Amino acid sequence: MAPKNPAPAIPHDRDSRLQRLRVWLRHLFYGESPGAIRFRLGVIALDFVLIGFFIITPMVRDRPVFLILDYVIAVIVAIDVAARTLAAPHLSQWFRRPTFWIDLAVLITLLFPLWLANFAFLRVLRLWTLFHSDFFWETVARRYDNTRWEETSKALATLVTYLFIVTGFVYAFYARNHPNIHGYVDALYFTVSTVTTTGFGDITLPGPSGRLLSILIMLSGFTLFVRLAQALLRPHKVRFTCQDCGLMRHDLDAVHCKACGVLLNIPNDEV
Q1: Which residue among 106, 114, 214, 222 is least crowded, i.e. fewest CB within 10 A of its CB?
Q2: Which residues make beta-bridge pairs with 249?
Q3: Which pLDDT score, from 0 to 100, does residue 33 have?
Q4: Domain ranges of the chain
Q5: For the packed helices 66-87 and 10-30, what is the interaxial angle rounded to 10 degrees?
Q6: Average pLDDT over residues 178-192
C-alpha cells in the first residue's frame, strides 16, 4: 500500500502567523515601549470618541447618516474586541471578565441597531469598563493609580454611567407612552430629579410599575452618590497587601499593619 501523503504545512504556517500576531498585539497592549504607549493612548482616545457617540445616539438616531456611523463604529468595536482577546495572556481568565461580555453586548447592539434599538442605552456601559480597566490606569493615569483620584474617578464614572443607563431605559420604554417625555432630555431630567430625590413632580412614571421603578432609581442612585462622597471625603489609604494577614488598605505613613502588627514596607515616591 502506498504511503499516505504527508500533511500540508499550511496549518502550521497559519498557527505561526496567529502566534506572531498574538505576540505583537500583546506587546502593543501590555508593552512598555514608547510605540506601545502611543498605541494605547490612541485606543483610549478612540474609546472616548465612541462613548461620546453612544451618549448622543438617542438625539441623532433619526438622521440618515446614523446607520452609516453605527456600522462603522461596529467594525471598530469588533476589531477592538478581537484584538484585546488575541492579546490576552490567558483566554480562560479573559472570558470570565465582565468587561469582555459588556463589550460583546455593546457590539451586538451596534450590529443590529434597528432590532435592538430599545437596548442601545447599554452602550454607555463602555464608559464603566474604560474607567474600571487596568488598561486605562496603567497607561493614561499611571501617576494616579491606587490613589484617591482612581477611587473618585471610578465612583464618578459609575454614577455617570448609571444616570445614562437609567435615562436610556426610561426613554426607550416610556417616551412613546408618556405625555411629558417628548425626548431624551426629558428622560434625563426625570432621572436626575429622581436620583437626587428633588422630585419636582412634573414628570412621573405611570402605574405601580412606574412607582416601583422610581423607588429603585432613588435608592440605587442615592447609594452611588454616597459612594462618591466617601471617595471624596474619607481619609485616603494606600493599597498594599499585608503578607501576614492580607489587609489591603493602610494609612499613607503606616509602618506596622493595624490588624496583625507585622512590619510593612510600603513603597513611596520620596527620595
Answers
A1: 114
A2: 239
A3: 80
A4: 15-143, 146-236, 237-271
A5: 100
A6: 80
